[in-house]
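Revision sheet: structure tokens.
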Amino acid sequence: AYLIDSATVILSVATSTIDRNRTDKTIQLYPNPVTSSLSIKLNEQTAGNYLFQVYNQQGQLLITQSFNKPSGTITQNIPVTLLPEGNYILSVSKEGKPVATKEFTKQ
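Predicted:
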């Protein structure tokens, strides 16, 4: 599903799976606002292949980070130093299925 065309996938993801108003305790972001490294505490208890994606307010995919998560709560860091100041959306998915979405501010 994700190998068709990267531009098509970005538009599809940006318009169909990101819910900016969703409140979810599955992830916690700190510090927020952030200057250099965003810490993501993932409270999802099941193990699996997870994907973090950072989008700007226009829906453009800027950062992708994937990892194989063991069971239990973990904390991952995403470097955001190169992002310009502004508001961003972090989308977390597990094996292609949305898990959580949160907004953060880069200063």
